[in-house]
Design goal:
Length: 750
């Protein structure tokens, strides 16, 4: 050390380290590094596989393996085994393998590199912002300003594109699609496929190999292909044609409608002039406007009606079919209300004058109608008459009685069907075999079927419907609604004024009194929320009850209970299963308390000291038992309903035992003494059970009854069941009471 010269030199012989320090020079050396410094601005640091040299702030050089970086205020360079990159001011250059680039940032760039396809070079020239050019073996691109673009694509699908953004675009593709587009048009064509697309403003025309589409958006569209043809001209014209089936629809609102089907039928309307309907043989033509032309032909019913109703008309019945007899052609001419006249070749005559009468006579019968009275008589088929407001008609199937407008009844003569109306709508009723319905003054309605009855009063105010063993629904709006689906074990109840709703699906139960009470049960899990303050949640054997900030209670699966009122004010613990008599409580931060020990000793606690008290029974909560009892009752109720539904399907006679046939008396045997069998008392049958029918005459008390083998009613309502097939001396009966058989045996007297 030379302190006056601020010089020092330290050598560590063992570790082969040396450090030399002075104001002008610094030197440090270790086995794997060396550092030299001069005046604090020139440094040379050499380590394993790297070297740093610097002359601040003019020069910096870093070398790591084959990678050398040089930086100066005027520029710099990077040299690697693959290539080099350099920059002097805005001028830069790069060479990497066969790629090279040169430029003047940010105005000019020239880049040349091997093409991605492996043949030739890809050359890119940029003269910002005026020009961008790219040349490759597969395509060329030129952009002069952002508005002019030119491309040339070579290869399997060569094409040339030209664009003058946004006014014009052009594409030329040999043996492909040529495009010309601009504002406001688009035109493309394929000379090889003979297709084209033309769009000029809202108009378009598209010809493809399968279809032709043309139109003006959004008011006109025409479509034509091998299968269909469509025309839409909004808002009034629509046309569609199926070329394969020949089905056609044409609509020109509101003047023309034309619908033709595959089978040749057609419906057309020329509004407001005429309406037409044509089928294979039948047709109908009606003139809507005056004077009202009508032409109706029905081959199936063998008639035609033609005329200008009511001025003049013509009606012909029969004679249109090939097999018809010419004499059956009945022709009727008329002009209402002036006259009507008709006849045929088989003796039928019809005539009417000034609507004072109508007379028709043929081989089947005679008809005479007048404004006061009339009748139709067809022997063996029909008898109909009327006089004023009263009339009656009888045919082979129906009977009809009318007192217009007070009474009407129509009844089927064979089937159980009838319809009755009394001063409608005061009473209307209808029956069709097993189903029927009636209403009274539009207030009371009832519908009945073998398995279902529905009743309504002032619909929809009150309604009641019951399907046997399946569903019962009734409501009284706006008070309540009840729906019980017994077959599916589902119920729904609603009290609308109270906003109360209840839904049950098997073991699932939901109860809501909006917005205060929400109760949900899913099997053994349930939850209750009251006014968003009271919470009661029971899941998998655990119970949690709390009022936020005021009360909390929890019971775990082991039956251990913990509760608290206002944190620190009071709390308690209890064991419900292992030792139900053990309960402990504390209050006022534990200052006072009490409870029952596990041994049954009752105590009072004051500041931790326990004072023994007299034993007293521990109060046991019954809420859990009541809840479980309600669940059992619901389950039993469902089981009883299911059992009742099964009994309803059993016939009454199936459960009755068959009476045994007594053995006939042997010839020559002495007659048996009259005996009085002892009665067997059986339990009184409950409601809904099937009892055995009585055979013969019910004897009086103490009378002798023969041994017929059939049960009978004895004194005091007891059922007598004698022993069948036994002798007088050996016959015995058993007395059975409410509690079962008594086992006492009594021999008959005599």
């Amino acid at each position: 050390m030379i302190p006056p010269l601020l010089f020092g030199d330290v050598t560590d012989v063992k570790e082969q380290r040396r450090l030399t320090l002075s104001p002008f020079f610094v030197r440090s050396k270790t086995p794997d590094s060396r550092t030299l410094g001069a005046l604090g601005i020139a440094w040379d640091v050499k380590r394993k596989d790297e070297r740093h040299s610097a002359l601040f702030p003019l020069y910096y050089r870093r070398q790591r393996g084959d990678r050398v970086l040089t930086v100066t205020p005027l520029g710099g360079g990077l040299k690697t085994a693959e290539g080099s990159t350099w920059a002097v001011g805005p001028v830069f250059g790069k060479r990497q393998g066969k790629s090279r680039a040169f430029g003047l940032a940010p105005l000019f760039v020239r880049d040349v590199r091997p093409a991605a396809e492996g043949e030739g070079d890809a050359k890119t020239t940029v003269l910002f912002p005026l020009y961008f050019g790219r040349r490759t073996p597969t395509d060329d691109l030129d952009m002069v300003t952002p508005f002019f673009w030119r491309t040339h694509v070579r290869g399997e699908k060569p094409r040339k594109n030209l664009a003058l953004v946004p006014f014009y675009f052009r594409q030329r593709q040999p043996d492909g699609v040529d495009i010309d587009a601009g504002l406001p048009f688009f035109y493309s064509r394929d000379k090889r496929r003979h297709t084209h697309t033309l769009v000029i403003g809202p108009g378009f025309h598209r010809l493809s190999r399968k279809a032709l589409n043309a139109g003006v958006v959004p008011i006109y569209w025409w479509h034509d292909d091998e299968q269909t043809r469509r025309l839409v001209s909004l808002p009034i014209i629509y046309h569609k044609l199926d070329k394969q089936s020949g089905q056609r629809s044409t609509v020109a609102l509101p003047l023309w409608f034309d619908f033709r089907r595959t089978n040749g039928s057609r419906v057309w309307v020329a509004f407001p002039f005429a309406v037409g309907n044509k089928k294979k043989f039948n047709f109908t033509r009606i003139g809507i406007g005056a004077p009202g032309f009508v032409d109706v032909f029905r081959l199936g019913k063998n008639y035609r009606f033609t005329g200008f109703v009511p001025l003049f008309f013509r009606y012909q019945k029969c004679g249109f079919r090939e097999e018809d007899d010419p004499s059956c052609a009945y022709k009727l001419y008329g002009s209402y209300p002036l006259f009507m006249y008709g006849s045929d070749g088989q003796g039928r005559r019809t005539h009417s004058a000034l609507s004072l009468y109508y007379f028709d006579k043929d081989a089947k019968g005679t008809t005479l109608f007048t404004p006061i009275a009339g009748a139709r008589v067809r022997p063996g088929e029909e008898l109909t008459w009327y006089a004023g407001i009263v009339g009656r008609g009888v045919t082979r199937k129906h009977e009809t009685t009318v007192a217009f407008p007070l009474f009407f009844r129509r009844k089927h003569r064979v089937k159980h069907k009838h319809t009755t109306a009394v001063v409608p709508p005061l009473y209307i009723g209808h029956r069709d075999e097993d189903s029927r319905w009636f209403e009274t003054a539009l207030v009371f309605w009832q519908f009945r079927k073998p398995h279902k009855v529905s009743t309504a009063v002032v619909p929809p105010l009150f309604y009641l419907s019951e399907s046997y063993a399946e569903r019962r629904i009734h409501w009284l709006l706006p008070l309540y609604l009840r729906d019980n689906k017994m077959g599916e074990d589902k119920t729904f109840t609603s009290l609308f004024p109270l906003l109360y709703f209840q839904r049950r699906n098997g073991d699932e139960l939901d109860v809501v009194q909006f917005p205060l009470i929400w109760h949900i049960e899913r099997g053994e899990n349930e939850g209750t929320v009251g006014a968003a303050l009271w919470w009661d949640i029971r899941v998998r054997g655990t119970t949690t009850q709390f009022i936020p900030g005021v009360f909390v209670r929890r019971v775990n699966r082991k039956g251990q209970e913990f509760g608290a009122v206002v944190p620190g004010l009071a709390w308690w613990t209890r064991d419900h299963k292992e030792n139900a008599k053990a309960v402990h409580w504390r209050a006022l931060l534990g200052a006072i308390g009490g409870g029952n020990e596990e041994s049954g000793q009752r105590y009072f606690s004051l500041f931790g000291a326990k004072i023994k008290l007299r034993p007293k029974p521990v109060w046991e909560p019954k809420a859990a038992e009541r809840r479980e009892l309600r669940r059992k009752r619901r389950a039993e109720k469902r089981a009883l309903k299911a059992a009742g539904k099964g009994k309803a399907t059993t016939k009454p006679n199936e459960a009755a035992p068959k009476a045994a046939t007594p053995e006939p008396a042997k010839a020559g045997a002495p007659p048996k003494a009259a005996t009085q069998p002892t009665t067997a008392t059986q339990p009184t049958p409950s409601a809904g059970t099937q009892t055995q029918p009585k055979t013969g005459t019910q004897p009086s008390a103490g009378a002798t009854q023969p041994n017929t083998g059939a049960p009978s009613m004895g004194a005091a309502g007891t059922l007598t069941q004698p022993t069948v097939g036994g002798s007088a001396s050996g016959a015995s009966t058993t007395t059975q009471g409410q509690g079962g058989s008594s086992g006492a045996t009594k021999k008959p007297e005599g």
